[in-house]
Amino acid sequence: MAQVLTLLVSVVLARKLGVAVYGVFVFGFAFPGWFLLLVSLGLDDVMSIQVAADRSRASRYLTLVSLLRLLLAAFAILALWVGTQLVLDDPTARTVTLILGVSSVVTTYATTFSSVFRAFERFEYAALITIAERSVTVSAALVVMFLGFGLVEVSLAFLAGSFVMLILSAVTARRKFAWFTRRVNAREAKHIVKSAIPFGLNNVVATFTYTTGIVLLTVMRDPESTGIFNAAFTLVLALFSFLSIVSIAALPMMSRINEQSWERLPSVLNQIQRLSLVIGVPMAFGGWLYAAPIITTFYGNAFLDSAQSFRVLILSFAVETAVMGIGPALAATGHMNVRLYIGAVGAAITMVLSALLIPPLGPVGVAYAFLASCIVVAVLSAAAIQRYVAQLRPIGTLGKSIFAGTVMALVLVVVPGLSLWIGVLFGGLVYFAALFSVRGMSAEDRIVLWNALRGALFR
Fold it and tell me: Is there a single domain that holds both residue 114 and residue 228?
């Protein structure tokens, strides 16, 4: 639900404000992401893992991380202000970027509390709070737009929503889970920071992987190019968000399983991977076929050029599903450094290829850079998990999913005149019929898939 609301406001913004102004809005979220790394620092992941292993640590960790982040937030906002002065000439773009940057800082600080929910494996609290925040933010932004106000006022609506999330998260943590202690242990604080460094560095490479193209497009081209690319990128990221839900849930679960019964971890990992492939392959086939109608349905004809980027980006979603669960498994088993090295390679590929391909290809060049990064990271991740954790068994599921996806694509090409929504429904039925015919899913897989879909749709 929260992802649907986020997509809704993105679509309305793009349609209402136009391609160039939408590009400024996108930059206003992407560029501050580089400075948010000072605030996040991987502390959320450390809290989730450490508190999941021993819940008596919750209050101490909440206190220490909250204090650390107050200082880090001040540095991040100052650095963001300096950065906007150096990069942007337009006063309005500077103002929007600063407002959205502060909004992101407040939201990141709120995750300090939601990390406690994750550690207790009570994800429904984080989901409900996120939905409440998005409802407030989206409603306020839509009202502001339809009253005729511009991008600055829309940005203020996002800032207000971030404080809603902070307040709700803090109140929930205090009433249901843990609250601050009066004593601060400097040695434990040092341990938290030391443990968080690999996660923080991993967040660095992930942030640069996802935002470098957007920032470079704005700087090397123009906001319009950024808007064109991000229309496609936002739709793909909406799909990625469902994978993120699985990863967020998997990290404390895998950490607990690794502590209590490590021999179960390979079977859990392989089941996650099988289910991800079953969903990712048809998404890639269908997205490639229906790229143009998907873009125009959401964003209108002004964004039709985004379809070229979407066809490339949707393939990265299929690649990502092929290695689903590997990241949390590496982190839970103490191989975060390996995950970091792999992510660093992917980020470097994204940055270098984006810089090389933006001049000749524009937005499509960024899409190719992102896809190349995903492929390399997937190959390296598969090699790492088989060396350090468990042997993967995806070949059978992958082959059956590709077979079913190919049947679906051929049927959709042969049957003429299908609208987007009819095509999606009909194609889905054909895909699962073909998959079941070759026994691509067990009865247990079907139950888990249904439960996962229900959980994803309401988070």
Answer: no
Residue 9 lies in a domain: yes
Residue 365 has pLDDT above 90, yes or no: yes
Instruction: Give the Å distances, CA to CA, from 20 to 12, 87, 221, 284.
Output: 14, 17, 11, 28
DSSP conformation class of 262: G
Could you read off the pLDDT of 70-117 as tens digits, one per residue?
888 888 889 889 888 888 888 888 899 999 989 988 988 888 888 888
Q: 238 and 145: one domain? A: no
The secondary element (H helix, E strand) that includes residue 404 is helix 395-414
Domain that holds residue 218: 196-393
Q: At what angle do helices 291-299 and 265-289 cross, to 10 degrees?
A: 80
User: Rounded to two decimals, what is the model's pTM?
Assistant: 0.71
Number of structural domains, the chain?
Answer: 2
- pLDDT at 57 > cutoff 90: no
Final residue in a domain of this structure, among 376, 393, 410: 393
Tokens 């039709």: give the residue.
Answer: 304
Cβ atoms within 10 Å of 62's Cβ, excluding its own:
25
